[in-house]
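HOLO CASE FILE
Compound: iron/sulfur cluster
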Amino acid sequence: MSGIYIHIPFCKKACIYCNFHFSLKNNFSEIIGCILTEIELNQKKISKNKISTIYFGGGTPSLIGTDQLKRILECLVKNNKLNPDCEITIEANPDDVTIKNIKSWKSIGFNRISLGIQTFDNEFLKVLNRAHNSKQGIAAIKNIKKEFRNFSIDLMFGIPGSTIKKLKYDLKMIKEYEPPHVSIYSLDVEKKTRLYNMVKGNKMKLPSNKLISDQFDLIFNEMDKMGYINYEISSFCKNGFESKHNSKYWSNEKYIGYGPGAHSYDKKFRYWNIKNNTEYVKKIREDIQVYEKEELTKTQKINEYIMTKMRTREGVCFKTLKDDMRLNLGLEKKKEIEFMKKVNIVREKNKNLILTNEGKKILDYVVEKLTI
Ligand SMILES: C[S@@+](CC[C@H](N)C(=O)[O-])C[C@H]1O[C@@H](n2cnc3c(N)ncnc32)[C@H](O)[C@@H]1O
Ligand code: SF4
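Model generated. Tokens follow.
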């Protein structure tokens, strides 16, 4: 089963931490027209049978209006074989979530919403340069709940100025509104962002490692108490509400990405589309290749498997590595694994290697020790 990702590269405002591909211009129909052409041209020639998930991400898909979204969905239906129970997600920002929009998204086929709340703290929302306030965030959740059973909210922690008390408030709101899925990300300082420049220029101070570690603990404990399963390092869900689309990224399944900056993977090659909107339009119009690709080596495939699987609750399967990739990880990394078990950052479960909660705080270190 494959997934389809559609990248909508527009935003209302630039959040200070974000280095995803987006533009503040609103030449929506020009880009959407080219995304339709890209779907029809099928330059990458990845098989389009048995599509079980479609994910509209961004950028801000909720910004472009139902008519444009409908054009893309209709084009996808025409050019692919969709499973009848296909999960179809739209990423939405709270300031776009009106009852009217929610109803029309549902009417054109979306059955899941991923809502970018980030925090319920107005002061932080301002600092982050988000386009919504806390009241709009709460209203969006309440309205979504009227029409959608399956939805998710995104939160961030480790925001400059953050405290345990402030995080407790965000978690209290989860308890109150019970979204079936929550993604909680530790704020990353990405290069080429305003946040990066502010931190570098001492204009903004990041929370201490101790505070981040305490916030991790609070999240793991509280989410567990509320009945959420931490099925991937940043993803929590009530039973049966895992994101089917995102799970493809962690379980070596195919996905085809359309739109500027979108990535694709067909188990052999990794593809990435050009990130520049103007260049994308120009190339699509002339039917020139809009992507670059790389064939994965055996080592890259092994490392990719370790990197993605260590994020999940199933962890890395020694047997799969041995049978499918001819790597005896237990032997190859014996010293490293024994040490990491001793200091309680990994453990074995059902003959797989998984992260403990302490390990989840230092995933990059663990991956570095396990990859070849
Ligand atoms: C790229 S955004 C797109 C969704 C939507 N535009 C929004 O802002 O909610 C997807 C999610 O990535 C997370 N994210 C983006 N940049 C991040 C960063 N630097 N550190 C941690 N999380 C980040 C945010 O939680 C965001 O909701
Ligand atoms: S976080 Fe979302 S809304 Fe903010 S700039 Fe990035 S994609 Fe746009």
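CASE NOTES: The pocket of S-adenosylmethionine (ligand 1) is lined by residues 17-18, 20, 58, 60, 91, 93, 116, 118, 154, 156, 185, 187-188, 190 (CB under 6 Å). The domain at 2-249 is CATH 3.20.20.70 (TIM Barrel).
CLOSED: yes
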